[in-house]
Amino acid sequence: IGSAAYKLLIICALCIVSINAPETRRIKLYNVFLVTSFFGLFAYIWLFIVLSLISKDVVDLWEATITFLMFPLVVILAYLGETKFFASKEIDMEEEERKLILAPPELDETGTPRSFRKEELLQFLRDLDQSTNLSLEDKAQLFAVNLSESMPRSRMQYRIQGARMLTGGKSLFLNLPDRLQEIYQRAVKSQPFGGAISTDHEDGGRKRTSTFNIDENPHMAILEFASSSYAVLNGEQRVTVEVTRRGFIDSIIRFRLDTIDGTATAGEDYEKLSEEFKMESGQQEKKITIHLI
After folding, report:
1. pTM tops 0.70, yes or no
2. Contact 29, 81 (CB under 8 A)
3. Is-contact 110 169, C-beta < 8 A?
4. Can you tell me the mean pLDDT for 48-63?
5. Fewer CB atoms < 10 Å away: N or C end of the chain?
6. What is the pLDDT of residue 288?
7. What domain range includes position 249?
8. In terms of domain of life, where is this protein from (predicted)?
9. Do the domain assignments include residue 171?
10. In this structure, are residues 117 and 150 in contact, taking their beta carbons and an 8 Å threshold?
């Protein structure tokens, strides 16, 4: 034990000396380093206790047995440290909030934030001007909520939001008064669904794109999620999402729902779903349960 501890001391010294002044290195497995450092120091203390305090200059059988058992103990504790068995499950919410605020937005090829939909946001404002008679302050609130909901939200944001709700703190997301919430829902749902069909011409020709408005076709049905996002607190075992149908509803339809990994991973955070569902004639909503791990 004394020899191993001395080697550890020399190795640490060589690692420190070999790094030049402006450079820095971090210990990757810090928990393992703490375990080995503790036992490296404790080895000298144990030798002092055995040879100087308990039985001077004599090693008894029970002392040798305990010393021998310390080796597998070091290995087990180092393994538990590597698997983060002793890691704290608590999360520093203030630090995570600071990271979220300072984190730069994702940019596309043109350098524009991916969540910034200029044309759609301008159309939303135009629809408000045409269909409502609101003050400038009310329009600003509606615009801010629309912009906020268009941005992708991470799992950490929902975790912080859940912690704030449980402790009575301020909501991380923007909330509208009841009178504006109804107006906002009507404004969002009234935006028409559109599509585009592209066809390729012969060699040397130009691509032609034609647009169409689905809402104008009375024989088409539109399937969509009732909400663009769902918040789930830690400890929840399932989340229920709702698929709604509007437009033509007088028919039996079948649709397929597949889950795709985002901030959550199938098999680790939730059970993957890939199924076909059915809506009867006249049915306008379908609730689907996704099991969490």
Report:
1. no
2. yes
3. no
4. 88
5. C
6. 92
7. 216-291
8. Eukaryota
9. yes
10. yes
